[in-house]
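Posted in: Protein Modeling Q&A

I'm a second-year student putting together a small comparison for a lab meeting, and my supervisor asked me to include a predicted structure for Argininosuccinate lyase. I've never done this before, so apologies if this is the wrong subforum. The sequence is pasted below exactly as I got it from our records. If anyone can share the structure token output, I'd also love a short note on what stands out.
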Amino acid sequence: MRIITAAVCSALTLAALAAAPASAQDAPVRFIVPYPPGGAADQIARLVAQEMSKGGGATIIVENKPGAAGMIAADYVARAKPDGKTFFVGSNAPLVVNQALYAKMTYDPSKDFVPVSGMAKSPLLLVVRHDLPARDVKALIALGKQSPGKLTMGSAGTGNITYLAGEYAVSKLGFQVTHVPYQGSAPAIVGLMGSSTDMMFDALPSSMTQAQSGKIRPFAVLDDKRFAGLPDVPTAAELGYPGIDASAWFGLVAPAGTQTAVVDQMNRGVNQALAQPELQRKLTSIGAVAMPGDAQVFAAFVQAERDRWLPVARDLGLKAQ
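Accepted answer (user: helix_wrangler)
Welcome! Here is the predicted structure, written out as tokens:
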């Protein structure tokens, strides 16, 4: 009896040990988005996750953890186990701009993450409330100069590229605004449509539909070429205001310590999804373009963004509000 019992116990122990890694392996992958549902980051993350999950691929859950200019979500992922199950949908603010705006951060964007892959980027669009007296950029500048600081500029939050690029653009255009931060692009656009704010520099995925429908008025695309979905909207350079181009971008990073093999596998999955014509069509329809490439390409891109925008933020003297 003792031999049988020992054998049974041994078998159960071995079965439990064998089941543990299988259970962990079958656990869904999570993409942590630092903004509310409906914004550019959320839309892009869900499109990529859906494509990656096709054909029996890994189950990917998109979770929204908004707040603190993306730092709540960033800190959460930085502290997560580097087991290939939790990834951060990083963007301009939490991976770049916050370093210039906040004296203290609970994570180090250059040390606490490893780059995985770019996902997509979108040029910013200068939009105003539908009933603003100004009808074009020239009139907007004149209106802003009449009463410095009277015009209100919404953004997706302090640290977000919609804030930094907006402050940079208005400084180049020669007038001042009062910044009104929201927790994400979607609520910021709602505020603009309700005339709670006067203007905004927003990423196309959260503003293009409203601009097309006339709920807000688009003045300029901050890119080197017009966007196909808004062919009648000129670029800032076309209007005589070069050098203020800016894009919102999104990509995956993993907690520091994540194995290279895991990073490479996820990178392949993202890039395979980005190569699909249907996903490219969906990205274009919301105002974004794919950002393919290996982990090193994405790492170099993020560093280039730091080299460009951190000095801008410091030169403007911008701080978190």
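A couple of things worth pointing out for your meeting: The chain has eleven helices and ten strands. The longest strand covers residues 113-129.
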